[in-house]
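Thought: the user wants the 3D structure for the chain below. I'll pass the sequence to the structure tool as-is, report back what it returns, then summarize two notable features.
Action: structure_tool
Action Input:
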Amino acid sequence: MTAHTPPTPPFRDPSLPFAKRIDDLLSRLTLDEKTAFLHQFAPAVDRLGVDAFRTGQEALHGVAWMGPATVFPQAVGLGATWNTDLVRRVGEAVSKEVRALRAHDDRVGLNVWAPTVNLLRHPLWGRNEEGYSEDPKLTSAIATAYTRGLRGDHPTYWRTAPVLKHWLAHNNETDRATSSSSVRPRVLHEYDMRAFRETVEAGAVAGVMPAYNLVNGRPNHVSPYLREHLRAWTEEELLVCSDAGAPSNLVDHEHYFDTHEEATAASLRAGVDSFTDHGTDSSQMIGRLKRAHERGLLTEADIDTAVRRQLSVRFRLGEFDPDHDPHADAKDFDTPAHRELAREAAEQAIVLLKNDGTLPLARDSRIAVVGLLADECKLDWYSGTLIHRSTPLEGLYERFGAERVEFAEGVDRVLLRTGEGTFLHVPAADGAADEARGAEGALDPALLAGRTDLPPLTTDPAGTEFALIDWGEGTLTLRAPDGRYLSVAEDGFLRASADQPGGWVVQETFRLEPHGDGHLLRHVGTGRHVSVSADGVKVADENPETFELIVVERGEDAVTRVTAEADVVLVVAGNDPHIHGRETEDRTTLRLPAHQERLLRAARAANPNTVLALVSAYPYAVDTTALPAVLWTAHGGQAAGTALARVLAGDVSPAGRLPQTWYADDADLPDLLDYDVIGGRQTYLYFEGTPLFPFGHGLSYASFSYGDLATRVEDGTLHVSFTVTNTGDREADEVAQVYARAADPALPRPRRQLLAHRRVALAPGARAELAFEVPLHALEFWDVARGDWRLEPGPYDILAGASSEDVRLRTTMSLDGEPGAPRAVLARGLDAADFDEQSGIEIVDRTKTEGDAVTAVPGLAGELLYRACDFGTGAAEVTVTVAGEGTVELSVDGGPVLAELTASGSGGPYDYTALGATLTVEGVRDLRVGLRGPLRLAHVGFSG
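Observation:
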């Protein structure tokens, strides 16, 4: 008798289209099973042979949080390469390592949460390190390259499924879960959405993650923009994954909904398909979804839509076709090619900001290397664990020889004496720390963080001399002679147990607070003071110890000692990515920490031939007048030191370019929460001051000439070509940049706008002809008068050169477009948010589900300007749609108030009423609307 073999279900049939297979699998799942899929950790369905699935694997510049992996430069450093081919190869390497790790650890997810495409609008944003550029065109070009590398080249199956972060207008950590970004329509379309749109349209994006903040008064996790814009940009199903904890924030912090069931249902209906909340415990979110369904807030069809999007990603990843998945047997991990790529990326990310001929260094130079970052290879929150590492000092030892390099870190060496006359002391670790050292000799932070098996600090008559590292604003770290940082574990005791400061809550930072004749030592992570007790040194709520700080050697003195006789001094300054500028913490200033400025002055005073290398996740405002040479690089990953040494030695000519404006002073910056890049004249697009270094800036050891500029328009495309010639004596890369500007705009337009770029390698004397094709819609702006894109006709300057300010070639050409027309206010009225100019105004949500309104900033008189309103032969009545209490004043052309309408304030913020008044106005006029009081204005209408 022949055994019956059950037929293969259609969802297992690789010959069928994914859509049919998804339909089949969806039909076999129960409502409970489908609902369970909506948490980040979706369980297996054993009866169907469906595996568990996890959304979310951090992979910003290498595989993160899963142990050792190749660590590439930070994202802002990859942006500084201006090299899309390189970044695509980095994405490819990262995705191969994701697959290789996945083969041995099923915790590793194939749905990667990268890249971050938030624009670097404000340089004080704590997460500056995670973005690529302040410019939407450059950001989308780099992001597209990275997602293509992450996706892979197979036409059907993806190596990993990238999710873009963080939708939308997210540039502040301060109050990030409750603050609202007020984004006018022009900024929304021309700036914040553009980087997302062009990356999604390129076709290698699997999904998007909404940001914690609100936009125009509405949380991103319930934004109608997900439906109205994001999903309209592609025919592919996009998986929208919530940010961690954000679903609960809708009720717990934002108080936007009264119940979690309402919030969860609203998120799902808006387009969130996977809920990241309560860690691996899915019961809370699944319970909310079930109760929302039971109460009629959700339908099964709503749940099916979200599950379908998730399954679409899973099918594309080859989960249901293991025999056909070309990536299933990936083994590429920490390969020689990946190590070489990490070095290449680190080299290409280095930007030469200034050079009077001091660089490159002669091979026989005697070099003094000083600074807090000189012997560091820093990681950030989204780094993997280093397998290999290279600090600037190590790189210089390797390249120039240890006998030609002197080193002084420049930190203060201190003893801490107690009131009893004893000193803080680090007892011997009895070999415990050695057990945590890997093959490279570095302490593994994953093993050391929070360790309690090491002995706590004690006191003794001699004490331990600590390196006191001042990171600015009163924050310091203390390091023992063996390189371990003082850290506080869960039991409250101080131990020398951390390789580096790190963690979500950093446990290695302290503050010295003057107290009597000494200082209290406050631990930042717990907020408690250090006390000394019989069982060891710990943090406690009582009995704080008063310490006398004894400086054994000042950092400046150590710097002076090693720099005076050197041929050149290299000061390596910058930031620790876990301190003062990181996720959850914005910076407060562009200035270098005061201690590092003192070290720079000391080095310069001892030896005028002082070169500054800034290693940082963001720009600084530094006086470079007296410095012969200055370089900048983001934290460059595992090969950072080798890369810097090779550039300093001239083995590689630097060709990185700044991906954002470096401002000269804090006074040049807008408020952190001012998202109006047009009105606030922000970024290189609109900034009218003199930057310290402009967007796109970067020098070379070679020189380049530009020529033969030619432009033409054909079939809706602007064609630009020119030649670049290496007129120097060494091979080098040049980054040629093409910009445009409307020469005679009728409304504020960018001073110049990046259209295209190319990084090209040229031998001495070599010439390359570069040709670019730019769709004319790249020059369109969002016309608020018509609610759509429009190309303004008239003259446009086409600029080619080496930076946004270093323009080598230019021409002016006239473009045909569509002339502007007055606003047809009698037919359509005015949506309040479609203003041309404003002061004292913020945009808020018209309802919880759709639309915008405007309101005056508390304490200010709000003013709105709507240009060229066509009242025809005459308007006799105005109607305003308002909620809340206050007065609306209308005037035209700067004249007297023509109508004044007052709302009583009955009802809530979404209870709108229509108020009417008579007026007399005709012709095309500029309408001014004043808001007095806390009312919301949604619409202004007119009738004859």
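Final Answer: Structure generated. Residues 520 and 637 are 36 Å apart (CA to CA). Residues 412-553 form a domain with the Trefoil (Acidic Fibroblast Growth Factor, subunit A) fold (CATH 2.80.10.50).
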